[in-house]
């Protein structure tokens, strides 16, 4: 069976060790500065006075998105949901269960995990 994944990646290392590029943060900050220095007012102006209805609609969508968040989308799934994964946890050694517990504690930061 062929090995999957990127052969240049090292096991246990993330695919983006440097994190998000700094330029992204700069662009985000410029956008925020623009919005707080008249951008929101411009959106309100477009929503009420634009000659084109599609421009008005887009401005209203942006205002609503910023004000209330994007609306949730309904998701329907079809098919069978399998809850039994075929693992009998009573047969897992206690040492392995403790390892799983410790991994969950570290991953979630929850001391009760």
Describe the structure.
By secondary structure, the protein is an all-alpha fold. The protein has a domain at 22-72 and 84-108. The chain contains 3 helices and no strands. Helix 1 (22-49) packs across helix 2 (53-68). The longest helix has 28 residues, at 22-49. The radius of gyration is 25 Å and the shape is elongated.
Looking at this protein, list some descriptive labels.
113 residues, mainly alpha
SS elements, strand count: 0
Number of helices, counting only DSSP H or I runs of 4 residues or more: 3
Please tell me what the overall shape is: elongated
H/E element string? HHH
Low-confidence sequence ranges: none
End-to-end C-alpha gap: 36 Å
Q: What composes the largest sheet?
A: none
Quaternary structure type: single chain
Q: Kindly state the mean pLDDT as a whole number?
A: 81
Structural class: mainly alpha
β-strand percent reads under 5%
Record the SSE blueprint.
Elements: H1 22-49, H2 53-68, H3 94-108
Summary, kept brief:
By secondary structure, the protein is mainly alpha-helical.
């Amino acid at each position: 069976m062929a090995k999957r994944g990127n052969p240049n990646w090292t096991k246990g290392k993330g695919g983006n060790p440097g994190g998000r590029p700094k330029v992204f943060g700069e662009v985000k900050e410029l956008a925020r500065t623009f919005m707080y220095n008249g951008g929101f007012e411009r959106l309100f102006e477009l929503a009420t006075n634009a000659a084109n209805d599609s421009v008005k609609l887009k401005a209203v969508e942006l205002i609503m998105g910023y004000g209330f968040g994007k609306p949730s989308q309904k998701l329907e799934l079809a098919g069978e949901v399998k809850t039994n994964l075929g693992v009998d946890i009573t047969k897992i050694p206690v040492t392995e269960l403790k390892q799983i517990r410790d991994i969950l504690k570290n991953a979630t930061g929850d001391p009760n995990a």
